Amino acid sequence: MSTQAPAPSRREQILKEAARLFAERGFHGVGVDEIGAAVGISGPGLYRHFPGKEAMLAELLVGISGRLLTGGKRRAAAGEGTGRAPAEVLDSLIEGHIDFALDDRPLIILHDRELDRLRDTDRKLVRSLQRQYVELWVEVVRKVYPRLAEAEARACVHAVFGLLNSTPHLGRPGALPGRAATATLLHRLALGAFGGAHSADGSGQVG
Fold it and tell me: DSSP label at 108?
């Protein structure tokens, strides 16, 4: 049986190229015609898939926030369902976020640079999804370090996200270690950040 992933749809191709171009040149530096050319269709042809660039940006930023939350919930539920220790669930959450940070760098750039361009309703939805994602992590972190105060755990989660989401600033892809080595390094740094907060708290052994 084939294990190949299905080919991306035309809509997915458009979003991928839009993300790349928006990240490289800024939202206002890219025209619909250029996005169309990147996927081999005329600019006006894009309007069969999206009403405009604003809709593409909204789908990119709302979409990745939703996927992170869904993936995090799935990893947490899988850990609970198999009786895995909280530390293993935290490892899994870190692995999932590292995959995003390494494979979707244009979306990190877009979020940092273009979030305020979204309509209020879309921006509020992004923020809501992000808050739920943070709280999911906080719950797991406090199971691993039960004496860590909730506010401290939340601050740690935000700090670790900042660390992992720094990948667009790590240099050109060719200047970095291989993907596996970079993922291992980021994982070690994330665990070190949580462990450092735990040690500073004087909480003793990991729960």
Answer: H
Q: How far is CA 119 from the centre of its chain?
A: 21
Distance CA 107, CA 19 (A): 6
Task: Answer positive or negative: Cα dihedral of 189, 195, 201, 202.
Answer: negative
Q: Please give the structure tokens belonging to residue 151.
A: 């506010």
Q: Taking a C-beta distance cutoff of 8 angstroms, is the pair 173, 112 a contact?
A: no
Q: Look up tokens 């070690």; give the residue.
A: 188
* Structure token pair of residue 83: 């009786």
36-65 confidence digits (pLDDT tens): 999 999 877 888 999 999 999 999 999 999
Furthest-apart CA atoms within the chain: distance in Å: 62
Instruction: Name the one residue in this structure whose structure tokens are 């619909």.
Output: 32
pTM above 0.90, yes or no: no
